[in-house]
Each structure stands twice: as structure tokens, then as C-alpha cells.
Design brief:
By secondary structure, this protein is mainly beta. The chain is built from 2 helices and 12 strands, in the order ααββββββββββββ.
Length: 212
């Protein structure tokens, strides 16, 4: 688990290879997670991935993006399936299997504000289950990108602008708001990216960078 996110990493092998520095660069379905403003970049279609992390633990992502008039939309599901946990009431109980998972259902919308600026919003539902414990939470992210020149663009993503909180056995967990500022520079066929992530709870900022 990350400090501010459903998972410690998001969808997309390219974005992950770039260290997650994708607030100014991600487009298409993956932008629902990294910066919903990227949905308006025009890259639609369907994308997905599946990774077996351990014999009973798997990670999967399925997303799609499309445009309708002046609006661009995206939908996606991220899932971390943890397999079965044996549930017991006492030491003599032979136990019974209980599924455990973490899932997020995402809906994003984006549009151009004029010129080369784009704005987007992601609405999400988290569904967590750990044996007998289950909790749901709603969240909203906001994103903005602007392409200053054909080679330079910048993006800002406010994650968890609203987060309703997860409740497990009376304990409430709320992910803090996090501001992500990123920039991308294209030169000679290469894309240079940098990003700073600052949780708004007093935690230290994190920096990431990559080259594509």
C-alpha cells in the first residue's frame, strides 16, 4: 500500500518504467490513474495487463478511453487479488477459506479548456476485503495539463481531493491529499520526464524522473 494511493504503483508498463513520472505525459486509459486531464489528449482504445506476483497473488488492470463530442471519457478496474486466507475461530477450528482482494473502479472525464490546456476528473470506488473485514471508500482526483510548445508540457494532479475513508473494525483510514507536479520535454526523439509528489499531510516530497 502506498501512503496516498490504492497501490504502490499504477497501470501501464511505460509509466512504471518512467518511475511513475507521468502527470504531464500519460494519455489514453492509463491517464485515469496518473492524470485524468490526459484523457483529452485523444489516445483512446482498450488496454490491460495481468501479472502473477506470487502463486496465489495477482495484479490486473483493464481500462478503456473514448471521446464523445467535446468530452473524453475513461473507465478502468485495478485489482490486487490476494488469494484465500484460512479463517479460524480458535486453535481447534480446521478453518474455512476466505477471499481477500483490493480493487478500484475508476471513471474519468476530461475536456479542453481552450488552447492547449486540458482539465480532467477521476471518480473512484475502492473495494477492500480481508477475510471477514470489508470496507468501501469513494474518492475524487483532479488533473490539469498544458502544452506550452510542441516540445514542452506540464501537468498537475491532485489525488484524493476527496476521500471518504476506509473503515475496518471501527478504525478509519483516510488517504491524505497529494499534489503531483510534472513536466515533459521532447528532444531528438526522446522524452525526458520529471515529477515531484508532495503529500499534504506533512510528509516529505518524493521525486521521480525517466526517459522514453
Amino acid at each position: 500500500m502506498g501512503r496516498t494511493n490504492f497501490l504502490t504503483h499504477g497501470p501501464g508498463s511505460l509509466e512504471e518504467a518512467l518511475g511513475g513520472a507521468a502527470a504531464a505525459y500519460s494519455s489514453g486509459p492509463n491517464a485515469i490513474y496518473y492524470n485524468p486531464a490526459g484523457l483529452a489528449a485523444g489516445a483512446g482504445g482498450i488496454t490491460g495487463e495481468y501479472t502473477k506476483l506470487l502463486p496465489e497473488v495477482s495484479y490486473s488492470w483493464l481500462g478503456s478511453a473514448f471521446s464523445l463530442g467535446e468530452q473524453s471519457f475513461g473507465m478502468g478496474v485495478i485489482s490486487l487479488d490476494l488469494g484465500e486466507i484460512t479463517r479460524r475461530q480458535d486453535s481447534m477450528d480446521p478453518g474455512s477459506p476466505a477471499n481477500s482482494y483490493q480493487r478500484a473502479y475508476l471513471l474519468g472525464v476530461s475536456r479542453y479548456l481552450g488552447g492547449r490546456a486540458r482539465f480532467g476528473t477521476t471518480f473512484g470506488l475502492l473495494d477492500f476485503r480481508l477475510a471477514d473485514y470489508q470496507s468501501n471508500a469513494h474518492f475524487v482526483d483532479f488533473g490539469l495539463t498544458n502544452q506550452f510548445t510542441s516540445n514542452l508540457s506540464a501537468g498537475v494532479n491532485l489525488k484524493n481531493a476527496y476521500f471518504s475513508g476506509l473503515n475496518f473494525a471501527g478504525n478509519k483510514e483516510v488517504y491524505p491529499k497529494e499534489l503531483r507536479l510534472g513536466a515533459s520535454l521532447t528532444s531528438g526523439g526522446a522524452v525526458l520526464l520529471g515529477q515531484v509528489e508532495k503529500p499534504l499531510d506533512g510528509s516529505k516530497p518524493r521525486f521521480s524522473a525517466g526517459v522514453s
